[in-house]
């Protein structure tokens, strides 16, 4: 029951059955013909994707010598706890595991994950979108095969905007104006919700602004900067909307939240592209009411977006079958058949260069969104993602104390900037405990 | 809820015997106790010992594991986040436990009096919530407390007033208490009820001859008979309150900003260990909490007649 | 003598009962809803389309019917764990009640002291030790800890004190009966109501055990219902992760099915339950 950031990163991408016009894709290094050895081998794969067996079956068909045992041992932090326990105990972990990008540094930097450039994954940086590769690459080492990602977009209720006669915002200024107009026209409607425990929202916001709230140098020197100009810009913006009563406090993914979304109380949802999956899955009755638009920007003419969510397949350092494990991870996430299955059977947004060059994929009209060619917007957002965002090795802790600090400000309608300061203090205290040399930027 | 009555009878049954007889009795007694001692040792004592050992170490992301002596304990004593949680569960104990036990006693008296129609159904009904697993409880309470779509919203909306925010900072502890009460009233009620059933019929007959009314009987016969059971329930409520975890973590999913990571000491230990990887510090907190529990359980009992005490 | 029912008392307690039953009623009502109606109808109103059997059918088929596998696991863990715990507690309680032995106070005090330390902090140590012992991801890792019930031990001790007269034990000894025989043929029979009580308490406790199985099991095929349903609930919260199946109705209907056996157990075993508790509550 304990909420924290990781499982939310989980919310996954879309894709309604795409008409799959098979396009010739060039995927390097991961087809069955490359199988290094024919020795039968069994690998264990931990993931919480409920329907993954379909994809695994296809892999096994193409790789008769590799058997994959799929285990769903928990969502997000529950799985990570098990992996951490197995790492500490020296055995008992899986060969391949599903891991959200924010959780990877904690395991990678403590030596728990295999460097895939040494186990047959040299091709990763060429196969996958550069913006996504940067989330699994630390120095020259690559610690995961990207599976999906969450390029930022804005879902909105077209019916609400039309009824209120409000323009769909493209900048955050327009967004604030729309917030007022919408609420004035319909007191039950709010531009969006704020969730005091949902750390992904500020991550996404700070990322878009190019903020660097935490920077680690030499492995031990941590600089915290949650009072930077960018951080304060985000904080003050939301403080204003929140205090003006233009946002609704709600818990994303809760039963009540889905009701509010379905009921037209929440007009926009700025989130990773996978949000569509949640809408179609839980609110099928809303078909045709929602649309997607680019993530609003801070200044007219800006293009920079950010991301929310997404996962990779990682290989554990304690695995004795790292080659087979890497081969599996590459096939599922990077091969033509694997990607097709991720997209069609799992409803994920794949991350290969090839798929994002495939017109059949990009131009598909999404019925739920009133026939919009939504993936064009996703693709644009993926391309425009601001580079330079990074995660710390103790991201779960940072996420867990967000609600203790910033969450208080949101709930009590006080200054979120002050909340950021309290958050920064808690992080600093923790990092010092963990042996980092902490500097607070001024 | 576990353990109780134990210590009670230890002294009573300890009679002087010849050493050789006691030696023989010891051999047999330990043979009977052996299975319990083995499983208890393997699953509780050894992990506890392990926790005690690691509470003197510190594991850092940078620098690895080092021996730090009693540093973790010193830190806990000065940790205001921990203090907040401890004060909160103490407040909880002082307020919620009397209410819960009062309802349980009244329910037991009512059922025992025979003046309640359908008492068998009431008895089972009050007891059922104890069997409801946490994942279900979270869904149900989320609905019941929900201000907009929930029952609270609908009921208050019917009267045209906005529902109070049951999950807001002001009422949250009360809502937690509500769930705990809901879960454990029936449990305690059954213990009390059983105590009442065991009062010999002759006692009532004697009271009737003295012309005692129902109220008088309840006051001077039934309540005194409940004392040992009440003491037992009280001690286990001390343990339950100080280890408060399930109910707040259920509500945390619904209102994360109110149930902070240090809302109760046990939640804090959990969060330190599972979110922050500070297993060592969490172990120290658990040990301290265990110590505090024992002390409070002892103090609470001082208000009880010596013969009714457990420790 | 017939006691007149009190209308005031009856009304008061039936109101209390109604409040206590409310969450269960909610569960019952919502298990009849389809995913769509869960989000469009009022919480305590029955849906337009009665989807209960649909939901059960989906439970039976989703992920090859893993729900019923979890159900079976739960029954295994609860029955073996509770049965074993009750037996172990009966033996130990008998020893504590009927023998004057060296170290008795120490044993009792240690058990109580260890119970006062919250189990959350023992999770990581338990994992490490179970790994060393090769127990991780085995049924034994769930069952073994369920076997130790301090409450059960003390309840049995108290019960044995009263229920088993010393004179019967002495008489059996004079007849030359061995101690094991005395316990199983004489004492245990007298302790059956207490034994059933501990059995039921442990049954509920093991049935609802979540934290430990979550930590020690690594294969969903071995999960009990609590862990499995919580997993689905988290996925449902994550928002339509499954492209095949909306999970909310499965969680709710599955939860109802998970509670039912315990309700049935309560109703059928309440007679034993009461007489067993009496010993624990009453005597000092």
UniProtKB/TrEMBL annotation, chain A:
Keywords, comma-separated and alphabetical: Cell membrane, Lipoprotein, Membrane, Palmitate, Signal
Keyword Oxidoreductase listed: no
Classification via CDD domains: PBP2_TMBP_like
Superkingdom per UniProt: Bacteria
Annotated Gene3D superfamilies: Periplasmic binding protein-like II
Any Pfam family hit: SBP_bac_1
Annotated signal sequence range: 1-32
Descriptive protein name: Sugar ABC transporter substrate-binding protein
Record organism: Antiquaquibacter soli
TrEMBL record, chain B:
Domain ABC transmembrane type-1: 86-300
Signal sequence coordinates: none
InterPro entries assigned to the protein according to its UniProt record, in alphabetical order: ABC_transporter_permease, MetI-like, MetI-like_sf
Keywords: Cell membrane, Membrane, Transmembrane, Transmembrane helix, Transport
Membrane topology recorded in Swiss-Prot or TrEMBL: Multi-pass membrane protein
Transmembrane annotation, as ranges: 28-57, 89-112, 124-146, 166-187, 225-245, 281-300
Pfam families: BPD_transp_1
Compartments, record wording: Cell membrane
Domain of life the protein comes from: Bacteria
Protein family (similarity comment): Belongs to the binding-protein-dependent transport system permease family.
The protein, known as: Sugar ABC transporter permease
Organism, as annotated: Antiquaquibacter soli
Lineage: Bacteria, Bacillati, Actinomycetota, Actinomycetes, Micrococcales
TrEMBL record, chain C:
InterPro entries per UniProt: MetI-like, MetI-like_sf
Gene3D superfamilies the UniProt entry points to: MetI-like
Residue ranges crossing the lipid bilayer per the database entry: 7-29, 75-96, 108-130, 142-161, 182-204, 247-269
Keyword presence, Cell membrane: yes
Stretches assigned to the ABC transmembrane type-1 domain: 71-269
Pfam families assigned: BPD_transp_1 (PF00528)
Primary location recorded for the protein, binned into one broad class: membrane
Membrane topology: Multi-pass membrane protein
Keyword Transmembrane helix in record: yes
CDD domains linked to this entry: TM_PBP2 (cd06261)
Cell location: Cell membrane
Keyword vocabulary terms for this entry: Cell membrane, Membrane, Transmembrane, Transmembrane helix, Transport
Family: Belongs to the binding-protein-dependent transport system permease family.
Name by which UniProt lists this protein: Carbohydrate ABC transporter permease
Organism: Antiquaquibacter soli
